[in-house]
Amino acid sequence: MEKAKRIFSIDIFRALTMLLMIFVNDLWTLKNVPLWLEHAEANQDFLGLSDVVFPCFLFILGMAIPFAIKNRIAKGDTPLQLVKHIITRSVALLIMGVFTVNVPEINAEATGMSSEVFQILMVLGFFLIWNVYPKTDAFKSKIFLGLQIIGVLILLRLAYIFKAGTTDNLIGMTPQWWGILGLIGWTYLTAAIIYLFTYQKTSLLIFFFLFFNLLAIAGHAGLLQKIWAGGPSDWILANGAFFAFAFAGILASILLEQFSKPENQYQLMGRYVLIGVVLIILGFIARNFFIISKIQATPTWVLLCSGIAFIFFAIIYYLVDIKEKVVWFSSIKTAGTSTLTCYLIPYWYYSIAELSGITLPGFLTDGIVGLIKSLIYAFIVIGITALLGKLNVKLKI
């Protein structure tokens, strides 16, 4: 199999999504934030910008899967090696997800460590274990292995001492809702394994896209509980909503391969827009039965955000692949290639800022000025990620 070439529009879509994720994750530091930028409440029938970012990330995760797997097959990886690789990556994300989702619940006194110090050590452990160490001589390789072992010991120690809850009812780490990284891990595991064994049959991939969307509908309609009496409210993770986003991305990649010739570029963009519009229309139809809710992962949310992701990617594809405006996005490209590093940097930033006791003047956290501050902050995080990359500090799983 021929190795698939790198698609820059995918990297740029991922970079923009990460930029927005850092931006919206900083909104908690502000006051007087416009409602349309924030997450909707669980029972609120509303779609804020913050509610669209994670679906777009899962969409682009799905888009990357076909290219990553086909490249590994072209290099000679067997199905067994690919399954091992997929599971290893997923487990890493699940471990990080469990740590990050538990941190807000920490009982500092019982743990013997503040939340800020815990987070600094936690992220240090992540970097020591999953950093991309340069290939070098045997002596330095042993040093790098030693650093990874230190990282493992740090995480084991943190997991051992962690305590949440009240003094009368202390508990250790629990998966909870797995955290953002954990959800990405489960989604990647499911979508990548299914794609690996079905990629030669487009009809099956379309089937799984429809299946997970229908599963989300069935779950919220209460049909899964009838099928599995006494079972949990979510038969599978979010009733398949997250997997539906990933398979939407996989279908987008299939179209990208089918219309890869230059003369077909406008046709491809047109199909992306058409699919996006159809999904958005279906989303508004679904709204007659289910509210728009990210927290509940309703079918309406899934359809609307999938449609938005298709249209968003069409715009990026037009600018990058058709008009060749790659340079427009040069300042954020690191966020598309060092995404995990970019995501974890804020854990250090917020912890160090809290420990230092330094606070920003009130006018920098209010209204429009505050939003500009958060946007600048997102660019700074990406810049720090780029600098770390030059120092050979970059997470890859």
TrEMBL record:
The keyword Transmembrane helix applies. The keyword Amino-acid biosynthesis does not apply. InterPro entries: DUF5009. Keywords: Membrane, Transmembrane, Transmembrane helix. Residues 9-236 form the DUF5009 domain. It comes from the Bacteria. The chain crosses the membrane at residues 12-30, 46-65, 86-104, 116-133, 145-165, 177-197, 204-223, 235-256, 268-289, 301-320, 327-348, 368-389. This is DUF5009 domain-containing protein. It comes from Arcicella lustrica.
